[in-house]
Design goal:
By secondary structure, the chain is of the alpha+beta class. The chain contains ten helices and eleven strands. The chain folds into two domains: 184 residues, Hypothetical protein (Archaeosine Trna-guanine Transglycosylase, Chain: A, domain 4, Roll), CATH 2.30.130.30; 116 residues, no CATH class. The strands form three sheets. Strands 1, 2, 3, 4, 5, 6 and 7 form a seven-stranded mixed β-sheet that branches. Strands 8-9 form a two-stranded antiparallel sheet. It is globular, with a radius of gyration of 22 Å. It starts with a strand and ends with a helix.
């Protein structure tokens, strides 16, 4: 297990802490460069800018993806640590020194998606590790073999246990519960964090390489992550329950005019489009097309989810 301690914008932290944010948050970086310091489920801790040399909260790393500023706002909203898109853009250009907005009005950010975030009240802030000093600008990675990892991890465990006991953590996720229970169950272990709607969208988008799952279209702003088994009917925010579809087809899929055959993974188009709307010829051209396969490392659509949609949603 690893832990990353990231230098954190104080206003970003203040807003999310005051709102008690519990859904995914975006710890964005203005560079757009890849972030590979930790892996899925590892701890990502927030360390405020000097003179506040304290670790003040954290979350669990899900994935780092490049997104334009506008798409990051559309995906995470106030989970970007800003009250408006305009405020977020101001901060982006504040940190992108030398880059004027008229030259790059919608810059690409490195969006570090964190699940199950937690924020410590001031009396529980953890002093920064002694090694976290000097020229560190962005952050520092610690491994389970490092003494300072243990120092911080133990403090995080105590804090989360206290917060859970005071019911400040209303609904601890699986990864958070693992940290709370670690004193009883041995060394720290990585547990996949719980995804919400924002994380679901990001993960499904990445699974299909930002391409429409049927025709390979790459116009990301019109592509949406669709639940196969509806979330309102017990479907999970998981890649195995998602498809990346063009916005109009997403709606048709949700309404039951499209389905995917569970075994051959071929598109099915309901005759009711023609019967009800007397059109839809370009949709019928999709009949029999084979669904794209997610890239290595992501789950394929679960046959049980496709079967549910076919039997319970599809109009036939």
């Amino acid at each position: 297990m690893k832990m990353y301690v990231g230098v954190t914008d104080n206003e970003w932290f203040k807003m999310l802490a005051e709102e008690g944010w519990t859904d995914e948050i975006n710890f964005w970086k203005p560079s757009g460069k890849p972030f590979k310091s930790v892996s899925l489920g590892d701890l990502f801790m927030f360390k405020l800018h000097a003179p506040f040399n304290f670790i003040v909260g954290g979350g669990f790393f899900s994935r780092a993806v490049p997104l334009t500023t506008s798409l990051a706002w559309e995906t995470f909203g106030r989970g970007n640590g800003a009250v408006s898109y305009e405020q977020m853009r101001e901060r982006v250009f504040k940190y992108r020194r030398g880059t004027r907005s008229e030259f790059d009005p919608d810059p690409v950010l490195t969006c570090i998606m964190l699940s199950e975030p937690f924020f410590f009240p001031k009396e529980l802030w953890i002093p920064s590790p002694p090694s976290f000093k000097g020229p560190i600008v962005s952050g520092k990675t610690y491994t389970a073999a490092d003494a300072e990892f243990t120092l911080v991890y133990d403090a995080v465990t105590r804090n989360l246990t206290l917060l859970n006991g005071k019911s400040i953590l209303a609904d601890p996720g699986s990864a958070t519960s693992s940290v709370i229970e670690s004193p009883r169950f041995g060394p720290p272990r990585v547990v996949r964090p719980r995804l919400g709607q924002s994380g679901f969208r990001v993960m499904v988008t990445e699974a299909y390489q930002r391409q429409y799952a049927i025709t390979g279209e790459k116009t990301l702003p019109v592509l949406e992550a669709a639940h196969i088994q509806p979330y309102s009917k017990g479907g999970a925010h998981e890649v195995s329950n998602g498809l990346l579809l063009r916005s109009d087809l997403h709606r048709l899929f949700d309404l039951g005019y499209l389905a995917v055959e569970p075994n051959q993974r071929q598109v099915m188009v309901s005759q009711q489009i023609r019967e009800k709307f007397q059109n839809g010829r370009h949709y019928y051209a999709l009949q029999g097309q084979t669904l794209a396969v997610p890239v290595t490392g992501f789950d394929q659509p679960a046959a049980a989810n496709l079967e549910y949609h076919l039997r319970q949603v599809y109009l036939g």
